[in-house]
Amino acid sequence: MISLANPTRFLGLVDKVLPWLSALVVILLGTGLYLSFFVAPPDYQQGETVRIMFIHVPAAWLAMFGYTVIAIAALGTLIWRHPLADVAAKTAAPIGATFTFVALVTGSLWGKPMWGTYWVWDARLTSMLVLFLLYLGLIALWQSIDELGRAGRAAAILALVGAINIPIIKFSVDWWNTLHQPASVFRTGGPTIDPALLTPLFVMAAGFTALFVLLHLMAMRAEILRRRVRALQQTQVERAALAEA
Amino acid sequence: MQTPFKLSLSAQDIACERGGRTLFRNLDFAVEPGQALLVSGPNGAGKTSLLRQLAGLLPLAGGRLVTDGADADTPIAELSHYVGHLNAAKTAFTVRENLAFWADFLAEGQGDPADHLAGALAAFGLGELGRLPAGLLSAGQKRKLALSRLFAAPRPLWLLDEPSVSLDVASVKKLDGAMRDHLKAGGIAVVSTHVPLETKFTHTLDLGLERAA
Amino acid sequence: MNAALALLARDVKLAWREGGAVGVALGFYLVVIVITPLGLGPDLNLLGRIAPGILWVGLLLAGLLSAGRIFDNDYEDGTLDVLAAGPLPLSVVAGVKCLAHWLATGIPLVLIAPLLALLLNLPMGSVPSLMLAMLAGTPAVSFLAGIGASLTLGLRRSGLLLALLVVPLYVPVLIFGVSAVTPYVTGPNSLWPPFLILCALSLASMVLAPLASAAAIRNALR
């Protein structure tokens, strides 16, 4: 772990890992999509639309995973003041937000044939929507503060506040949903999932996770390099100021 | 007028960073009771940052600050008065209300707040303006209001950032007198100023030189 | 203790004196409640049914609108620097200031809510539970707003950003706040579970939110 603390070592490691990881993503997603669209049988109730689940469920899972990454990195920023922690959190936010958005879109596409409308205030979709708002807030906070250190710490505080609140929000949305709608109508997958559907789901979940890690590493590399450029520009300004004086 | 202070403060090898830039490093100084330190240097050298570090508002990027003669548990912030560029005065409050709040808030458990309030109103001659809203005061009077806070609670360390800005000659004299009394009582002061003060500074620290070195 | 009381008294006094901050929040609440029927149509049955939700949403918005000033004015004029060097831990300073916001703004908003409920045809029997739920829930509104206010100190467009940061955190308060009133309107459910959860939300935010606010203020002062 200590060797990873050094951004230069980290960049070297990323360069070594990326080709392998890219290959893994291609293989997993290729297999997963093939299984989802050609091998898995259509559901006896939902028909072909069940295949949307193979995108929707992993995306929803990674939406939560992304926030977890940010919350852990936030601890790294506030407690251990690790230079890479803020880079990790900042770059995970747009990726996590995108997966949340994908989960929302696929959820609503699935809802059209199932419920007859694109949006239903279903408990899970609503929780996802609130999670999306939390992501937007984090990204906006990062962009509103110019100084990197201050922005990172503020976002870390907000991320931890959000992490404490997510279970409470989830609980309250579930309560609200059962209060207003009979729960049985909105069971998504049904109580049992056929094993034939389970395998493609797991492969897709693994593929999405690998994709997340790949995108995250690439984004972290870009962010580290961006910060170096900024630091170089700053020293240039300072040298110019010293030369004038 | 005050109980004698016996606080000494030393900085050991301290460093300061702002927005990824190192403003200064390897800074050392020691101030004994009754002594005063003048901080000078060009704009951007870190005078304000150093004072904010001493006031506990800006974390040190290295080194440490050591106090002697006070409770080891008491943070330096609670031993010091920080008067920065901003006056921390509420325009909707009267002069008296402003100072009364600081006496109540800052001097908790340090004697009768009413005495402190009377001292603070008298220190820079703001007594007769006491009933006026602070929003009506001139820039110089607002500055005097900020400096009067030094008397709203007895604290041994004064951290003054350009205290004489917008003050007239007579008021600068009052400031000098206040500093002299404070040092005589064993207090210490760390001051950054462009205007020469009569106060005899026992130490000087030129952040511009530190930086060039 | 004296220092905390002095700070509380000062903040409440300032809220009433500085540019009529409380009046603006009350006026904003009134405006939200007035434009809603204009948008929905004057159907009194419909309005009566959705009144608890509208009253709560309006209260949250009015609370947010006034939340910026919990810390912003003191940040702008340097007061926060001095408060941070006082005898109180910064989290206590933050908590006391949020409490002052609740006393000076939250409670007046709750007090005019029954008046606004008349405009929306909320059944009279629901008014006591509405006020009780609002009294129990508004501390959470003030303390959570304090987190947003401290994170956005000194930023451009801080008001809009504050709303974006805090509104998702208000979801539980809104849901249980409305649930505590709706049983009277829709059916036999008990008022107490949502009311007790509201109390728990408020107590938890009073304990935890000042810690986050204090960390955010420290971050803004450096």
UniProtKB/TrEMBL annotation, chain A:
According to the lineage, what is the superkingdom? Answer: Bacteria
**InterPro entries, A to Z:** Cyt_c_assembly, Cyt_c_biogenesis_CcmC, Cyt_c_biogenesis_CcsA/CcmC
Protein name in UniProt: Heme exporter protein C
The record's principal subcellular location, in a coarse class, is membrane
Q: Which residues form the Cytochrome c assembly protein domain?
A: 15-180
Recorded hits in PANTHER family, A to Z, give: CYTOCHROME B_B6 PROTEIN-RELATED, HEME EXPORTER PROTEIN C
Any one Gene Ontology MF annotation carried by this entry is: heme transmembrane transporter activity
Q: Which residues cross the membrane?
A: 20-39, 59-80, 92-111, 123-142, 154-176, 196-218
Task performed by this protein:
Required for the export of heme to the periplasm for the biogenesis of c-type cytochromes.
Q: Where in the cell is it found?
A: Cell inner membrane; Membrane
Looking up NCBIfam families in the UniProt record yields: ccmC
> Any keyword Endoplasmic reticulum?
no
One BP term from GO: cytochrome complex assembly
Family membership, please give it.
Belongs to the CcmC/CycZ/HelC family.
Topology relative to the membrane, per the entry?
Answer: Multi-pass membrane protein
TrEMBL record, chain B:
Q: Name one GO molecular function term.
A: ATP hydrolysis activity
What keywords sit in the KW lines? ATP-binding, Cytochrome c-type biogenesis, Membrane, Nucleotide-binding, Translocase, Transport
Q: Does the keyword Nucleotide-binding apply?
A: yes
Question: For the ABC transporter domain, which residue ranges apply?
Answer: 9-213
Q: Please give the superkingdom of this protein's source.
A: Bacteria
**What's one GO BP annotation on this UniProt entry?**
cytochrome complex assembly
Tell me the first and last residues of the signal peptide. Answer: none
Per the similarity annotation, which family is this? Belongs to the ABC transporter superfamily.
**Name assigned to this protein:** ABC transporter domain-containing protein
- Please tell me the species this chain comes from: Methyloceanibacter superfactus
What does the record give as the organism's lineage? Bacteria, Pseudomonadati, Pseudomonadota, Alphaproteobacteria, Hyphomicrobiales
From TrEMBL, chain C:
Task: Write down a Pfam family by its short name.
Answer: CcmB
What role does it play?
Required for the export of heme to the periplasm for the biogenesis of c-type cytochromes.
Q: Which organism is it from?
A: Methyloceanibacter superfactus
Per the record, membrane topology reads: Multi-pass membrane protein
Q: Which family does it belong to?
A: Belongs to the CcmB/CycW/HelB family.
Q: Where in the cell is it found?
A: Cell inner membrane
**GO-annotated biological processes:** cytochrome c biosynthetic process; cytochrome complex assembly
Q: Which InterPro entries match?
A: Cyt_c_biogenesis_CcmB, Cyt_c_CcmB_bac
Q: Which top-level group of life is the source organism from?
A: Bacteria
Mind listing the UniProt keywords for this protein, alphabetically?
A: Cell inner membrane, Cell membrane, Cytochrome c-type biogenesis, Membrane, Transmembrane, Transmembrane helix, Transport
Could you confirm whether the keyword Acetylation appears in this record? no
What's a single GO MF annotation on this record? heme transmembrane transporter activity
Record lineage: Bacteria, Pseudomonadati, Pseudomonadota, Alphaproteobacteria, Hyphomicrobiales
Q: What is this protein called?
A: Heme exporter protein B
The record's Gene Ontology cellular component field reads: plasma membrane
TM region(s), chain numbering: 21-40, 46-65, 99-120, 132-153, 160-185, 191-217
